[in-house]
Amino acid sequence: xxxxxxxxxxxxxxxxxxxxxxxxxxxxxxxxxxxxxxxxxxxxxxxxxxxxxxxxxxxxxxxxxxxxxxxxxxxxxxxxxxxxxxxxxxxxxxxxxxxxxxxxxxxxxxxxxxxxxxxxxxxxxxxxxxxxxxxxxxxxxxxxxxxxxxxxxxxxxxxxxxxxxxxxxxxxxxxxxxxxxxxxxxxxxxxxxxxxxxxxxxxxxxxxxxxxxxxxxxxxxxxxxxxxxxxxxxxxxxxxxxxxxxxxxxxxxxxxxxxxx
Length: 261
Ligand code: PEP
Fold this sequence. Notes:
Elements: E1 4-9, H1 16-35, E2 40-45, H2 51-60, E3 66-70, H3 87-93, E4 96-99, H4 102-107, H5 112-124, E5 128-133, H6 137-141, H7 145-156, H8 162-167, E6 169-172, H9 186-204, H10 206-211, E7 213-217, H11 225-229, E8 236-239, H12 247-260
Parallel strand pairs: 1-2, 1-8, 2-3, 3-4, 4-5, 5-6, 6-7, 7-8
Helix pairs in contact: 1-2, 1-12, 7-9
Bound molecules: phosphoenolpyruvate.
Phosphoenolpyruvate binds next to strand 8.
């Protein structure tokens, strides 16, 4: 059985003080829910400046199944890379890292090749990479979703063996659905996620295609998470806007109800 993952991408919100307050507010509730569902995992991904503060709060409140993730990292070990964070530094506080988010691809010109180097570095340092892929509006309207997804998988995951490929998490995030309030329909998301498993089976074999955890991301709230999780191919959500609101707890609660069934 694959773990259900609800990850929160706080994006560029909450400095250390606000991040600590919010974490202290939601953590006991999250823990109560997740503790009863050993097949669930929640990953909080604050901005890098706030990782340490959130880590401190997490150390002070005993929890089960709640982990800390970074929103990005560089692939080099150390050196003259001003403003960047090395994998080993991330590993000091986090167990996971979001890589190739569409906002990084769009605003900071991250390519699949760069994402690929980061994926290798994350695995090397024992971090769980949450690799984001997804088509933009134009590609969606031109019916190019499958070819875009196929290319992104091939390029972003180049050089991984089947075991490594089964360990990572993929987040399918149609760019047109991120932060727009316009989520993909659950059946649309499921079709693409099913296709991702198909591409996976071609490259890495049937076992890896069954093992890979694939999340949907794009305008998920407590009102629609149930629709996505009702599809067996969708293993959870990467939540943006709603992850910095109390609604995040509701998303986790609703997910737990479905996982329980
Ligand atoms: C995201 O940032 O990964 C995301 C899915 O954002 P939102 O939920 O706000 O669409």
